[in-house]
Structures are given as structure tokens and as C-alpha cells.
Design a protein that fits this description.
Length: about 90
């Protein structure tokens, strides 16, 4: 089984935790910012379009969303982001 297959078998919340932990350990602000930008679209995909319209410049809302992005349908919608990051070759 490949790394991507092993990772894809994990729950979305676990992918979130691993990706965020890796980004923090690398000091990868670029990935963390990408995650913050992608959360509103993930919320819309998860069926909450009102939250999906969150203004990207409203930092407080984004940070709040960031801490909840590893749970439920939002985590599932962000699954490709976590998989892409965890399997990237950049170290």
C-alpha cells in the first residue's frame, strides 16, 4: 500500500492533526495560510454557505475556523488539502 493510500484510509480529523502538526514543526506558514483560505470554501461544500462566505480578511473568524477545521464535514471537505500536504516532497 502506498503512502497516499495509507493516509487516505485515515479519518479526516487525523489528516488535519498530522498536516497541522507537520506544518507547525516545519514553520510552514504558507500551508497554514492556505488552510485558512480554504476553510470558507470547505464550509460551503459541507453545506453551510453562510459560513463559506466568511471574509478572508477577517482574521478572528479564520483563526476560529482553523481550530475547528479538523472536525466533521469541514474536515472531510479539506481532506484533499491535508493529503496533498502530507504527501508533498518538500521537506
Amino acid at each position: 500500500m502506498s503512502d497516499i493510500e495509507n493516509l487516505d484510509a485515515l479519518p479526516a480529523g487525523e489528516l488535519h492533526d498530522r498536516a497541522v502538526k507537520l506544518a507547525v514543526s516545519r514553520g510552514d506558514v504558507k500551508f497554514l495560510w492556505r488552510l485558512l483560505r480554504d476553510i470558507p470554501a470547505a464550509e460551503a461544500a459541507a453545506g453551510d454557505p453562510r459560513r463559506g462566505q466568511t471574509d478572508i480578511l477577517h482574521v478572528t473568524a479564520l483563526i476560529t475556523d482553523f481550530f475547528g477545521s479538523g472536525e466533521g464535514e469541514v474536515a472531510e471537505a479539506l481532506r484533499p488539502v491535508y493529503l496533498d500536504y502530507l504527501t508533498s516532497t518538500d521537506d
